[in-house]
């Protein structure tokens, strides 16, 4: 029955009882209070407007998610073929942590990354790293426990903390220092309720890749305050200009690390939903927490099985991502197109990304007096048919940024940049700048 409809009940009940029954039926059903502080603007209200426009016949260029398949990036054929060949073996439940060959391959990968003392049972396979992020927070947090999360962040981290009853405290990543974490700001935000610190490296949405000395400083803070380090490394192969990536868990063995990775980005296989979490470092005092992880892993029975058959092939096979990020590779070319175009626009400043698929440009408030950045990206969508996500959607405090995804091919990306420039030119004129 729809909200607001009157319920007519033919009974012998008193009028008061009938009215009470009608009110009970008409009462709206509210979402859980746990969702009060959960936001995920990557798929938020501006996307709903984009869908409406598509239904009206408009072609929308969707740059709201890092979804390589939507822009012609194909998962490696050998991964797909291994999944197909093993489909007959994928109909039943498997071990709640994942199939042995996949976890063994991940274990070998941790050895390549110089993460010490990882065993097969330390590895959990999930429906993408996203599921495992939520699982890790649910197993860890009591109400009002705190987790240090970067600003800007990938918003799933903040959402997972809040949904688990915790509080995300955002530490600054400094755009004036190549988007590196501000260590003093991290120190200032550690309290007696802080349980963990999240590090996203390579970073989404800024494209920063953190040097070892910064990682070691964060580890030292974790050591001093008994914090778990949650290292999101889903882009660890998407690196430009000869930059190398260091897994945080390779730098210490006396801190508890959770390392997250998967097939989504390095292997352009977002839809396969194959991610993993590695527990490493000092596990001596973490038995109860690990038991909690095991309980949650068992509750969902197991992760998507077909995709697990692609993990061993992915990690052990030809790394085609290297072709895409070399100086003449498609991703590098597209990064350069976007960076040069944005840098040439009046009032735009942007840090050139060293990794991942994004950049996070700033709009000079003197030229672009943006009060509501969600309204700003909505206006861009309606004017130029380009769907972006506003900076506050990544828990950035001020409405002066958007995330730019540089996945479209070179011709389409050039067109996108032209549309953005045209919109900004009109925006400045409308505001007398």
Describe this structure in words.
The chain has helices at 15-26, 45-55, 77-85, 100-112, 128-140, 155-163, 183-189, 212-225, 287-299, 305-308, 311-316, 321-325, 330-344, 373-384, 410-430, and strands at residues 61-62, 123-126, 146-151, 167-174, 180-181, 194-200, 228-232, 256-262, 275-281, 348-349, 358-359, 362-363, 386-387, 389-390, 402-405. The N and C termini lie far apart (52 Å). The protein is globular and about 60 Å long. It has 15 helices and 15 strands. The strands form 4 sheets. An 8-stranded mixed sheet has the order 2-9-8-7-6-3-4-5. A 3-stranded antiparallel sheet has the order 11-15-14. Helix 5 (128-140) crosses helix 9 (287-299) and helix 13 (330-344) packs parallel to helix 15 (410-430). It is of the alpha/beta class and 433 residues long. Mean pLDDT is 92; it is low at 1-11.
